[in-house]
Amino acid sequence: MAFDAWEWTNAIGAPAALVAGAVLATFFETREECSPQKSDKPWVRNLKRIMRMLLLTSFILEVVSIFCGTMTGSVLLGHGPAKVPVGYTSPLQLIHHHHEFEYLTTQICFLQGLINWLGAVAVELLLPRQSETKSAKRMNRCLAGWLVTFLLWMLAFYNNHLSFYSDYTTMLRRFFVLFVSRYVVARPFRPMSLLYGPSIIWSSILTWRAFKTPPDEDETFDEAKVE
């Protein structure tokens, strides 16, 4: 049973790695053209910021899914064969019962990373280009609309095939409850919280500053060179 559960954690790593690779390629290919500029309208600046944030979080989420799935698989194989009947009818029941947080992390990070990547592609299609014709803009809106439609259908499909939870939002709520109990108010005290706690706060401050930077503070490479 543990070996079958390990196969599940191993199998989800392959598609997560494919998505992570595609996301990283998209991020660097669009880095220059999707950087906020002084001349951009406010909604365009916000779309560019959202797109870059979606791409990077997508990559991080997929890597976390691979990492957590691999570590959980190692833990499962470390238990060895059961000497008595364990009472589970499926490998996922075994993982969910003994490693619920790891199960949720692997599932949520994979799905959310995929959603963020497709969402970033939809946002990129909505960004205006100077050389685009009216028909090209309408086609881009059409494609973005279909991407969002299929994203919503994917979530509906996922909710209809879930085990142990009623829907995706229930999984998210349970994940955050377990995260807080394990890594925020955990007993005994976790020394690493002295590092990742302030890091979360500082990263949140940097995120706020990034989204609130006014156009007047932006400078081009040539302007910076003159100064």
Task: Give a topology summary.
Layout: H1 2-29, H2 42-78, H3 91-98, H4 100-126, H5 134-160, H6 168-183, H7 193-212, H8 221-226
Helix pairs in contact: 1-2, 1-3, 1-4, 2-4, 3-4, 4-5, 4-6
What can be said about this structure in brief?
The protein is mainly α.
Helix content: over 70%
Overall geometry:
globular
Structural class label: mainly alpha
> Number of helical segments?
8
Features:
227 residues; mainly alpha; 8 helices
Structural write-up:
With 227 residues, the chain is mainly alpha-helical. Helix content is 74%, strand content 0%. The chain is built from 8 helices and no strands. It has helices at residues 2-29, 42-78, 91-98, 100-126, 134-160, 168-183, 193-212, 221-226. Helix 4 (100-126) crosses helix 6 (168-183). The longest helix is centred in the N-terminal third of the chain and has 37 residues, at 42-78. The protein is globular and about 60 Å long. It starts with a helix and ends with a helix.
